[in-house]
Amino acid sequence: MTSIISDINKTFDHRIRLGIMSILMVNDSVDFNRLKELLEVTDGNLASHIKALEQSEYIDIKKQFIGKKPNTTYEATPLGKQTFAKHLAALEQLIKTSK
C-alpha cells in the first residue's frame, strides 16, 4: 500500500520552486526578471532555486541576446510538467482525504 503523500515531490517543497513551476505551467516561457518580479525574490535566491529545478530536469534554460542585452528564459520540460501535475494531484488528494 502506498502512502497518501508518496506522490508529493520534495523538489517542490519550497514556495519559490512551487511558484516557479506554477508560473511555467501556464506560460510557454518566462524570463528571469519577470520571474523575480512575480515571486518578489532576490537574484541569488531565484538563481539557486532555478538551479535545483534545472538539475532535476524540470526546466530548460535558454540564453540569448536581445539587441546587445543578454536575456535568459525558462520553460518547463515535459518531465517537469508531468511531475508537477502529479505533485498537484497528490496535494489535491491529500486535501480531499483530510476533510
UniProtKB/TrEMBL annotation:
Pfam families: HTH_34. Residues 16-95 form the Winged helix DNA-binding domain. Coiled coil: none annotated. InterPro entries: WH-like_DNA-bd_sf (IPR036388), WH_DNA-bd_dom (IPR027395), WH_DNA-bd_sf (IPR036390). PANTHER family: BSL7504 PROTEIN. This is Transcriptional regulator. The lineage of its organism: Bacteria, Pseudomonadati, Bacteroidota, Flavobacteriia, Flavobacteriales.
